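Worked example 2:
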Amino acid sequence: MEFTTIGTIGAGAPARAVAAHAAKAGYPVLLSNSRGPQTLEAAVTAVGPGATAATFEQAAAADLVLVAVPFINVPAVGERLDDWSGRVVVDMTNQFAEANPYRGFADVSPLTGTEWVAQHFPGATVIKAFNAMFSTFIAPDPRHEEGSQVVFFAGDDTEAKAAFARWGEGLGFAPVDLGSLRDGGALMQLGGALNGKHFIQQG
């Protein structure tokens, strides 16, 4: 498994930050948001060459789909397709109960946030990543003099996680596998031990 195209559902700062690294690495990037391609000119310019404004359907058809929307909007996003099979979906959400401004905690226990997200993307292979990092830490070159910026990730599909790790390394990050969506997701989700923590892997 390898990723050849990257789509974003949502085009806010976190999605743009990851997309910019992907575009710089040579991946075609399809940016989408809830307002339509005509509103994405500034986002496309910010991401740089290789980025294109796209419809939801076009972005969702990519090999790797970055979902970076408010947590409470996940059900509406998932419902836009009956079947997400064949896609690897990266859950970049955080469990805020409200958006604009983000506040509160959306408790979906006994599920972790990403287990709950996965239920809304039937057929997709879901990986949790990039949510634990502030966009201001994602956006700069992840290669530092001291080493590489760590990106934590979690998932239940070994092949997809290996492909994600290779992709992340290609962008310059140091991917660190935290295990399953349940165990790793709990560490990464809002309030988890690794949420909002930023690390450099030396070497």
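The mean pLDDT is 93. The chain is about 30% helix and 20% strand.
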